[in-house]
Amino acid sequence: MSEYKTNLSTKLGSLTLKNPVMPASGAYDYFENNANLFPMSELGAVMIKSVHFEVRQGNPPPRVTEAQSGMINAVGIPSMGMERFLKEQHLARYAELGAPVVLSISGSTPDQYGAAVSILADDARVSALELNLSCPNVGTGLPFSSDPALLERTMKGVRPHTKLPIFVKLSPNVADIRPIVKAAQESGADALVIANTYRAMKIDIRKQRSVLGRVSGGFSGPAIKPMTLALVYQAYEVADIPIIGCGGISVWQDAIEYFLAGATAIQVGCINFTEPLAMPNIIRGVDNYLQDMGYESLSQIIGLAHQNNNE
After folding, report:
1. CB within 8 A of 217, min separation 6: which ones?
2. Sign of CA pseudo-dihedral 157, 140, 199, 72
3. Is the pLDDT assigned to residue 139 strictly greater than 60?
4. pLDDT at res. 140
5. What letter does residue 295 receive in the DSSP assignment?
């Protein structure tokens, strides 16, 4: 007997998830504070915080600050580097959680992404890769996903090194996301993650300087949902590959909005820090909604807002 009342399964490239809910990269502590709250096998997938190709110290503190209806972070992707990550067998811990493992990868140049994936060598414990292309390119200072040509170059350096599904995480800080979407899918992406955080800052009026050590950071939390939802809706109109919605999802109703806008799956971020049971609650809420509305499967509502808005 199914653990759900409806069919919540969803497909991202060659990867099928039993439900569409996973944490955003770096937004859940699987092993310490939250380890015994619920079985991680309840999730559609587990996401590993971005592993950089090389060792990174991250940004100077303070790295995180509260903001209205959200938070601003300038963590800077501190990382032990891909070689050490694999050598110390960190993947083994995630593989034991009982859900498909998605590994997020970052780099400072296009070649570093390809090198990181090459080192990974399609480890059997990894079910998919997420490329964090919202990182700034060392050469230009621009995020990889803000320039279609740079995105294509990066993807073409990665794709030959892996048969795993590749999810490309896009930045929302662009004038028009549609050319970025087209570049990602034409260069071999299997799914899109829309979107990363919004550029933001906060100033201490007593010290008269930025609250963060790096001046500006990325804004996330409930306040960004309407903006990211609009990006997902816009991307769906030109995308031929699945979209993973990410931004401001706190409750099941938020998830439903993303599915109606065109998302095939979702990532949950900020709310996990204050409500660590948010994800299983969202899964149950989506299941109940589908049953209450008379649907048999999640796939029946994906992108439905487009059809209804055009009637």
Report:
1. 63, 64, 65, 72, 73, 74, 197, 199, 200, 201
2. positive
3. no
4. 60
5. -
Q: Which residues are catalytic?
A: 135
Query: For residue 102, which of 77, 128, 132, 122 has the smallest C-alpha distance?
Result: 128
List alpha helices for the chain, DSSP H. Answer: 82-87, 90-95, 110-120, 148-158, 178-186, 225-236, 252-261, 271-274, 278-292, 304-309
Interior angle at CA 104, CA 101 and CA 109, nearest 5: 150
CA gyration radius, the chain: 19
> What pLDDT score was predicted for residue 33?
72
> How many C-beta atoms lie closer than 10 Å to residue 151's C-beta?
27
- Tens digit of each residue's pLDDT (9 = 90 or more) over 58-105: 889 999 999 999 999 999 888 999 999 999 999 999 999 999 999 999
Percentage helix, strand, coil for the chain under 3-state DSSP, each rounded to 5: 35, 25, 45
pLDDT at 56 over 60: yes
Q: What are the distances in angstroms from CA 27 to CA 48, 85, 120, 170, 297?
A: 9, 19, 23, 17, 28
User: What is the structure's pLDDT at 297?
Assistant: 99
In this model, does residue 34 exceed pLDDT 90? no
Q: Do residues 132 and 25 touch, judged by C-beta distance below 8 A?
A: yes
Q: Does residue 107 carry a pLDDT above 70?
A: yes
Distance, C-alpha 268 to centroid of its chain: 8
Contact 180, 172 (CB under 8 A): no
Residue 190, C-beta contacts closer than 8 angstroms, at least 6 positions apart: 12, 13, 14, 128, 165, 166, 167, 241, 242
